[in-house]
Amino acid sequence: MVIFAPVQAAIGTTITLSTATGTVGTTVTVTGTCVAGDIITVNFDSIPFPSVTATTTTWSTAITVPATTAGNHTISANSATAITTFTVIPRISLSRTTGTTGNSLQVTGNGYAYPSSVNVNFNGLLQTTANPDTGGNFSVTFNVPAIASGTYPIAATDGTMRPLQPPPTSPIRLPPQLR
Q1: What CATH fold (topology level) applies to the domain 91-174?
Q2: What value does the mean pLDDT take over residues 83-112?
Q3: What's the CA gap between 24 and 138, in Å, rounded?
Q4: Which of 11, 56, 98, 132 has the largest count of CB atoms under 10 Å?
C-alpha cells in the first residue's frame, strides 16, 4: 500500500530593496516572493520588524533603518532564507543653518563607525572631535570661527570614508554682520 502525504513545493523566499544605501532613519521597502500564505518576518541585522502575511506569491513591507553604525548590514526574511545587504552611510545635522561669528553650533551625527574618532571641520579646518557611541551617534558643539560672510561647509569624517566618497557635509550661511 502506498500512502501519499501532501507536500508543499518549496519556493524560496527572495527579497529586493527599494534602495540599497541610505542613512539611519531611511524608509526601505522590502519586497519578495514566497508561497502564498507564508508569514514573512524581516530583520535588519538581528532587529525584527512586524511580520506580514503573503496573500499571493509576493509580499511587501516598509522598514525604517534603525540606529546603527556605518557600513554593510544584513536585511533578511524568514530566518535568513533570503538575505541582501544594505549599506548605512553617515549623516550630520546642524543646530542652525545661519549664524554669525562666535555663535555656538551643535553638530549631531549618526551612522558613524564605533569605536572611532570623528573630526568635525568648518570650511576644511578642524574645530573639534567626537567619539560616537555604540549606535554610531555623536553630538558636539563649537563656536563659529571669525570669518567673512558667506556659506561654508561643515564636514564630519571618522577615517573610514572611502577616498572617492565625500564626507557628510551641511552648509552654514553667515550673513554680513550689522555694525
Answers
A1: Immunoglobulin-like (2.60.40)
A2: 90
A3: 13
A4: 132
